[in-house]
Amino acid sequence: MTFSDYRTALVTGASTGIGAAVVERLAKQGLEVHAIARDADRLAELADRTGAIAHPLDVTDTPALTALLTDLPIDVLVNNAGVSRTGNILTADEWAIDEQLAVNIGAVLHLLRLVMPGMVARDLGHIINVSSIAAIHNIPGNTIYHATKAAVHKATRQLRMDAAGRRVRVTEICPGRVETEIFGRLTGDMAQAQKDFYDGYESLKPNDIADAIEYAIGTPRHVNISTLEILPTFQVVGGIEFERRGGVD
Ligand SMILES: NC(=O)c1ccc[n+]([C@@H]2O[C@H](COP(=O)([O-])OP(=O)(O)OC[C@H]3O[C@@H](n4cnc5c(N)ncnc54)[C@H](OP(=O)(O)O)[C@@H]3O)[C@@H](O)[C@H]2O)c1
């Protein structure tokens, strides 16, 4: 186990879903966990329950992140906050592009910029980036989400070179469907999203992803788990479309 090497962790998107489960798990492992999300009430409840330290802020607020991290060395960074919006490139509105770029990749890069040099200097750290199966597979719809998560995928692999020769580990987690609020936030109707995306499906639970992250961190310090792709057993990706059209020689 290498949890004993680490003292502090920072988890974004901590107010619910995967992030909240990860905060709980890392706190149980004895880390001082700093939890970021916008919903102050939910973070306060999480802090009461787990002993985590709540930081109610928006991950796109770079000055706030900078102020928080100036004198706070982080050993384990879990870049988990993410948003998904409906629409492919033909139907997406301006906000869908701007928000997903800012949250899904902009904030991830800023947090890495703020946290990783300290890890490299201390020769100690673990970065966990939560991307998606959309980072590596093409699934119709949500084109901007795919683009931002693919950027996280590529950046994650690049970080291994940025930290070459230092004991800084980097792990990408690519989940398939997990039962959280993500689809309800996407459509604006939590109850309907529950019916459409989760009822009758055997989806992953946030704790399944927390298990994977706990595993990656807990491997011996000479082991770097680079990528974990985790799907529900009954969710399968793959396929190809080929439209037949008349009038072609
Ligand atoms: N659920 C899935 O099926 C699935 C599949 C693949 C990948 N993922 C990825 O897993 C990660 C976690 O998703 P989830 O399913 O747990 O989603 P979720 O239930 O919708 O939770 C999203 C979390 O992100 C936070 N967040 C969103 N925008 C933020 C912002 N601007 N600043 C700070 N925090 C922000 C939310 O908190 P506040 O609203 O309080 O700020 C919330 O805590 C995301 O990166 C997502 O893309 C999820």
Secondary-structure map with pairings?
Elements: E1 8-12, H1 17-28, E2 32-37, H2 40-50, E3 53-56, H3 62-69, E4 76-79, H4 94-122, E5 125-130, H5 143-162, E6 168-175, H6 182-187, H7 190-198, H8 206-218, E7 227-230
Parallel strand pairs: 1-2, 1-4, 2-3, 4-5, 5-6, 6-7
Helix pairs in contact: 1-8, 3-4, 4-5
Bound molecules: NADP nicotinamide-adenine-dinucleotide phosphate (NAP).
NADP nicotinamide-adenine-dinucleotide phosphate binds next to helix 1, strand 2 and helix 6.
Question: Short summary of the structure?
Answer:
The mean pLDDT is 96. By secondary structure, this protein is of the alpha/beta class. The chain has eight helices and seven strands.
Detailed description of the structure:
- The chain has 249 residues and is an alpha/beta fold.
- It is built from 8 helices and 7 strands.
- The chain has a 7-stranded parallel β-sheet with strand order 3-2-1-4-5-6-7, with helices on both faces.
- β1, α1 (17-28) and β2 form a beta-alpha-beta unit.
- α1 (17-28) packs across α8 (206-218).
- It is globular, with a radius of gyration of 18 Å.
- The model has no long low-confidence stretch (mean pLDDT 96).
- NADP nicotinamide-adenine-dinucleotide phosphate is lined by residues 12-19, 36-39, 42, 58-60, 80-84, 103, 130, 132, 175, 177-178, 180-182, 185.
Compute the number of helices. 8
Q: What is the molecular shape?
A: globular
Through-space gap between termini:
63 Å
- Neighbour order of strands in the largest sheet: 3-2-1-4-5-6-7
Number of E-type strands: 7
Elements, N to C (H/E): EHEHEHEHEHEHHHE
Described by strand count, sense and barrel closure, the largest sheet is:
7 strands, parallel
Radius of gyration over C-alpha positions, nearest whole angstrom = 18 Å
Structural class: alpha/beta
Q: Give the overall pLDDT as a whole number.
A: 96
Query: Helical content, roughly?
Result: 40-55%
Bound molecules: NADP nicotinamide-adenine-dinucleotide phosphate
Query: Which regions contain 5 or more consecutive residues with pLDDT less than 50?
Result: none
Beta content: 5-15%
